[in-house]
Amino acid sequence: MTDSLCRPSQGAGAEADAVLIAASLDEPERFAALFDRYAPAIHQYVARRLGHDAADDLTSDTFLTAFRIRARYDSERAGVRPWLYGIAAKLISRHRREEVRALKLLARTGHDPVVETWTDSADDRVAAQAASRPLAKSLARLSEGDRHVLLLFAWAEFSYQEIAEALDIPVGTVRSRLNRARRKLRASAAALSPLSATFEPHAPEGDLT
C-alpha cells in the first residue's frame, strides 16, 4: 500500500495549490482546503514511521508550520506535496530516536502496531509482521537521510525531483542515497518484506537512473 491518497496531478493540481496558498494570504480560511486535501496522506505516512500516537500531533504541527510560513511558498516548486512532506520530515527528525527504537523493537518481536494499516486480512497481517522484522532491522540501521529518501520514494511514491524539493537536496544526492539504501536492504535480506516490491521498482516516470 502507498500514501497516494488525495494526490493531484502534477500540472493543474500543483498550480491550483499555489493559487490557493496565495489566496490564503488575504483569506486565511482558504488554507483549510489544503488540510482537507493532504492531511490524510500525511497522517498515514507519519503513522507508518512513528505510530498512530504521534501521527495526530505531527500532522497538525505540519499544517500549522505550513500555515505560518505560507508567504514563503515558492510557486515554482513541483507542487505543495513535497513542501508539506518536507515539513513533516523535519518534524519526524525530532523523533529520530523514537523511530529507531520502534524499528528495533519490531525487529526483535515482530509486533508492529501499524501493520494493520498495511493489510486487510488476519492472515496477511501475520505474514506482514513476520516479514517486517528483517525490514525493520535494516531501516533502523540506515542513516536518517537515507531513511527519509527511501521512505518518501517507497511510501509516498515521490519522484526524485519531489524528494529533492522535500528535503532541499540535489537530485544527484537523492539518487545516491536511494541506491545506497537499496543496497543495504538487499544485503540485509529484506526480500520478503511487505514492501519488497516497492523497494525494487523501476525509476518513477520522468526520472533518469
Sequence-ordered SSE layout with sheet pairings:
Layout: H1 12-24, H2 32-50, H3 52-68, H4 80-93, H5 96-109, H6 122-141, H7 144-154, H8 160-167, H9 171-187, H10 196-199
Helix pairs in contact: 2-3, 2-4, 3-4, 4-8, 5-6, 7-9, 8-9
Q: Explain this structure to me?
A:
This protein is an all-alpha fold and 209 residues long. It has 10 helices and no strands. It has helices spanning 12-24, 32-50, 52-68, 80-93, 96-109, 122-141, 144-154, 160-167, 171-187, 196-199. The chain is globular, with a radius of gyration of 17 Å. Mean pLDDT is 76; it is low at 1-10, 113-131 and 189-209.
Could you name the key traits of this structure?
Arc Repressor Mutant, subunit A, disordered N terminus, mainly alpha, disordered C terminus, globular, 2 domains, Rna Polymerase Sigma Factor, Chain: A, 209 residues
Poorly predicted regions = 1-10, 113-131, 189-209
Q: How many helices? A: 10
The residue-averaged pLDDT reads 76
Query: What is the strand content?
Result: under 5%
Radius of gyration: 17 Å
Morphology call? globular
Main sheet overview = none
Q: Which class best fits the helix and strand makeup?
A: mainly alpha
Compact overview of the structure:
The chain is mainly α and 209 residues long. It is 66% helix and 0% strand. It folds into 2 domains: 10-94, Rna Polymerase Sigma Factor, Chain: A (Orthogonal Bundle), CATH 1.10.1740; 96-209, Orthogonal Bundle (Arc Repressor Mutant, subunit A), CATH 1.10.10.
